[in-house]
Amino acid sequence: MDEKRQKPPVNFGAFKRIAKMILKKYSKRLILVIICIIISSVVSVKGLSFIQVLIDDYIEPLLLDKNPDFEPLKHQLFLLACLYLTGILTSLTYNLLMVTVGQGTLKQIRDTMFTKLQNLPIKYFDTNTHGDIMSRFTNDTDTLEEMITRAFPQFIKSLASVIAIVVAMVKLSAPLTIIVLILMTSIFATTKAIVSRSSKFFMNQQQILGKVNGYIEEMLTGQKVIKVFNHEEKTKAEFDALNEELFENQYKAHRAANILMPAINNVGNLTYVLIAIIGGYFAVNGILPNLTVGVIASFLALTRSFMQPVKQVSSQINSIIMALAGATRIFSLIDQEEEVDDGYVTLVKVKEGNGNFVETDGDEGIWAWKHPHHTGETEYVLLKGDILIDNVDFSYDGEKNVLEDIYIFAKPGQKIALVGSTGAGKTTIANLLNRFYDVSDGKIRYDGININKIKKKDLRRALGMVLQDTNLFTGTIKDNIRYGKLDATDDEIIEAAKLANADSFIRRLPEGYDTVIKENGAALSQGQRQLIAIARCAINNPPSMILDEATSSIDTRTEKIVQDGMDKLMNGRTVFVIAHRLSTVRNSKAIMVMEHGKIIERGNHEELLELKGEYYQLYTGQVELE
Amino acid sequence: MFKTLLKSVREYKKYAIMTPLLVMCETILEVVIPYLMAKLIDEGVYEGNMSNIYKFGIMLICGALLSLFFGVMSAIIDSKAGSGFGKNLRKDLYYKVQTYSFSNIDKFSASSLITRLTTDVSWVTMAFQMAIRNAVRAPFMLLSALVMAFTINKKISLIFLLLIPILAALLGLISSKAHPVFKKLFTKYDDLNNIVEENTNGIRVVKSFVLEDEEIKKFEDKSQEIYNLFSKATRILAFNNPVMEFTMYSAMIGISWVGAKIIVNSNMTELTTGQLASLITYSTQILSAIMFITMMIVMGTMALASAQRLTELLKEETDIKNPENPIEKVDDGSIEFKNVSFSYAKDATSKVLNNVNLKIDSGSTIGIIGGTGSGKSSLVNLIPRLYDVTEGELLVGGKNVKDYDLEVLRDSVSCVLQKNELFSGSIKDNIRWGNENASDEEIVEVCKLAQADKFIESFPDKYDTHIEQGGTNVSGGQKQRLCIARALLKKPKILILDDSTSAVDTKTDQLIRDAFKNKIPNTTKIIIAQRIASVQDSDKIVVLDDGKINGIGTHDELMQTNEIYREVYESQTKGKEE
Which residue range(s) make up the domain with B494? Predict the structure, then answer.
């Protein structure tokens, strides 16, 4: 199944796109780079063939001279030194220029990817493993780095050298050049055969490496459980099997890659010999009049130098294959469809004047929905937090409904509890309310406006969220609370923390509000993280919110503190509580008992108890609530 | 350090030794081939001697074929040696970690162990492969090319002796300048990855606070920093090629000038034109060998840190070992703590457990209550010897736990850890951790005991339901019950539940305890809980406070005598009546 889903490992389209990206941004610089590379390659080719000039034009005549005059040679060497200097300088220039091209492109790719990431629908994150998303930023981008900064200039340089050499060859002898070129195609054929073999193995290797590392990760995370169950031998055996598979593929991939160099090298050597024999035969027998001994010698020197760029390119071939595989994955992320937002109702601040609302940008205004109608007139609706879920159906895959016929209304300030077992659809309702997913059928209205018409960002601003998994970000505690309102003052932060019951524990930390949180707050307890998340939401001060209670076991005392914080936060807001403890549910305006995507019972606590149905059973502890 | 790591070569030793030998043959040919080429030109082409052309041509073809043979052979053998070493090293590390005790694991932390077994292993394997191939090749190439050069002409070859140190010094300077920048770069890289990770995990938070743009800006700032550092580093490295060209070209001019003079002045007796051409080839070989050596040194230093971290793992000795003549059977489920003290670090000033004395009869049910950090988990972890006592003695079945065979002890003492882990695989697979050979009926039986059977049956795939890594697709309470079932399958003499029913509702919790009482009456049960209700009906309840036993007794006794217990009880019942 995995194989089917996998795209062809190497996609040359990705290469084209990167080239396009570079050309678009750095075309001028790139032209300069290419000019420099060409000059530097011509210089190096000249350098390689200088030896023949030296022998033919200087040494041979000087040998015949009774009083050899070295001045012309000195002069020639000086000129050569100048030429070399130009070569070195151009080489330095293009190497430096490429730094900006390479790193700039990488930065652009990284930034584009991250921006993309932020604009992807939640569905993408729910359906792709986070490790896989991460590795596009790490492994895959790294392989590109190698390719752009090293392989790419190398490639141009080699191409320029090959052309320069071929031109020099044709000048010396066209027939011999043809022979060389024919032999060279055999080299390319060899390379191609080996590369296509090794690229397959390299892909396999990467895949199995991922599998082995995944296994190591899972097992070492649960290492203590392994110890408790004396499971060491079993896991060793499983590990060995995977490790052996990795070995097989790694061995094959490297074998294929390593064979490439000696193969190309020696095909080159054989070409040399053939040219020597054929050329020598021609020269000695005088078959081609202008094919002198000196020409053959020069031609052979060129044949040798021809191999140099070919070898250099092929030594980069593996990194190119890896980079293309990486680029393919990167572009598959970049090409993902973004979360569309065609909402046109926005949240603005208004002021009342003459019985009408007027927009204002001052602090004194109140929030209202700005609703431009088709008729051209604009209506302002005050933000109150009135929510109606009207006969909503939802399905993640378009086949199986996870929600069916959901009807819930919450007047401003009311608390609605959602109760039911895992998979009953409670979290899905939360996902629909802030449009992480869109309803399949039915409507959700916020203050009477269909939420599909509201700009997503504004809808989410009007709807706070405290999730079960409290995700904190690297930074100080202050920063984390300020996340809810970027321009909050320190006083506002402390006030929010007090409301959330977080102030006292924060103050007891050595650095107080400036304590740096790392690794999602690993140094804090679950309860403390929860309190910070509550403060973060409190400072945001939304008129309505979704609250997903924590299930994990926090000790009784902390649990009480967290509960108090939540209660204070809920006060005066429209709240949807996804409840895991019935104690929080009792004072709700209405309780929805859900099962298999449907509301099976609704009412307040007393009504539901009287009903003696599912809720009654839950409440009396006969059925487990998660 | 290298000795420790190289132990992993084992059955690939012959390949690891053969590689450099083959590489040496290859290198010799690489040096000989240009020599033959020079001969072919001098004695064949220039003299118009066809038979010499054939002679050297055939020699060259043989040389090329031999070189191809050695090259391909060394490629095959070298890949085998490298991949084999990687495999064995990974295996040795994994096996080593399996011997670790809990305190060894705590010392390194799971995430650090994972990095070492993945990233560090790759680095070291890569360095090893590079070393067996090039550590011999480059110096050997340098040496043989130098020898060839000196045999041709001593005077000219002095040019190399002048240029080699210059090139080495320049390349060394470049790497030493670039190295610290790269080091800084790596930490910045970690920061960047951290942002991506946090955003991927917390995307719901980002989106619900509508902070996409701020996060993008945060990322772009970091990305800019990386751009700056990376540019700085590669700008330094950009000097590598020109420096190489500089020395190469200097060699060219030097050889040309000195060579021409020697040839002309000696009238081809001391140096021929063909030899001059080969000297140029040797100069290329010598200088690129130098470049290779510097590259290897740079890579070596980068792999060095990884190698050190791996050696640390391999040298770590487990602090809990099997005794010499272990007892192979645990007689009963009685437990006795005799003046037991415990601390996690050997030189710690504060003890986690302080002089604990406790006797537990076989088959009884013991509850343990206490606040966070009171030492509850530490106390029970000592029983299956997950940690060793620091002072005092701990007896299980009347004998010191240190005298038992570890496997026997841990099979008899089944512990449901506070931090439960389920593994990816079916429910059945997960339960079978308790006993590989258990029949399906036995599995169903323990699941019934743990009150898990009912919800498992409600899944479409029942006992074959796939569990995601870490058990993320079942609820907290379900996960806990699966873990209990898994522990029960061992048929232990002592069963320890470390806060293992916290997410289970009170009714089910009660059913589990009832099942224990009726179905496994002879098993000693130790239950740690936050809820009084979970331990209320135990034979004995232990109240722990700050590593000491604060009170022991039945529920009624403790309500009378123990203040802490009463307080906890009251706070919990009050909450309910509210």
Answer: 351-577
